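Entry 14. Structure prediction run on the chain below.
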Amino acid sequence: METADQTAPRAMKVRCCIVGGGPAGMMLGYLLGRAGIDVVVLEKHADFFRDFRGDTVHPSTLQVMDELGLIDGFLKLPHQRLQKMDGMFGGTKLRIADLSRLDTKYPFIAFMPQWDFLNFLREAGKRFASLEVLMSTEAVDLIRHGDTVAGVRARTPDGIIDIAADLTIACDGRHSTVRERAGLAAVEIGAPMDVLWFRAGRRPDETENLFARIEPGKMMVTFDRGDYWQCAYVIAKGQYDAVRARGLQALLDDVVRLAPVLKHGIADVKSFDDVKLLTVAINRLSRWTRPGLLCIGDAAHAMSPVGGVGVNLAVQDAVAAANLLADELTRGCPSEEALDAVRRRREFPVRMTQAMQVLVQNNIISSALKGGDRPLRVPLLLRLISAVPWLQGLPARFLAIGVRPEHVHSKAAASS
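Output returned:
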């Protein structure tokens, strides 16, 4: 990589500039660095530590880590494993999915803080001389040559830097600056809910296999994270101000009624500062490219938290992009037609997954959030899945493996 003298603005020239150091950006950076592509990943924060980012690593992602030879070290990181997903629906306990029925090498979901996942990829990528990760570096605009995106202007602690790149890849999330600067608009599909995220302490003797709890007007999901419970309290879209107006204690009382196991640990939630609002959105781009530019991950398609599939869809996008583009990148920027091959490969899985999320939203979550005095009726499909054990492998496969899972086909450079 070539860096100019320290005049303003500084300049850098790379083959590929990836904006955003989330799961899509770090995985794609690793894969392109492994292939010997001159690549830089820009992460606007000084570290990866962010509360309440997606931290479910599904079997499809574990398989990718295995194919890269990283799985042994990865699974040495602290994590919890989930195989059976049980729920309480209006007082009726159900088994929603059983991952032990999957014919896969890693039949479990690993719960791991996302910052550990991203730090692991960054450390593993340090052996590739062609990969550089720049922290505290925020993309603020695109560099253009006519209609072609030719790189990124970024803000760093040392001032502005212009990064010229044959290909720019937007991995900067659902509020993507790159996508906005490129004039790519997402089609909104909509979601009926938002989510309040918080942690509650967990005692060593507190164990519970319940994953989701649904009562009239209320819904909650809890994850056993070893020394604490990760909690997601679902509210109707746009009702956060009303929840705050009722007061913190009213919220916590509702939480404990839904999940008595949190009775002691809920004291960790001392104010609304300990409760983070996730505004849920489902959307996708109809066009993922401009000449010299590709969007993947949340920058191309925002997912609902239903199923916890966001991290894994982003990783699958990155694997597909490397498979399709790495060879061409050794020669320069792929044509827009070649870049669009990533959308053609990934759009069907995205559409199918979002359709599943909308189905759950419209048929389960919306009904639950309406409230009322009538008891909830367990949908027939859920009753069938819970009653017939082999059926529990079907939702498990959809959630854990997904539609059209990707495998690593991009080649490693000889020096790798």
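Residues 2-6 have pLDDT under 50 and may be disordered.
Filed with the rest of this week's runs.
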